[in-house]
Amino acid sequence: MHYLLTYELVDDYLERRGQYRDAHLALAWAAADRGELLLAGALESPVDTAALLFEGESPAAAEAFATADPYVVNGLVKSWRVRPWKTVVGKTASTPVR
Question: Mean pLDDT in the chain?
Answer without folding.
Answer: 97
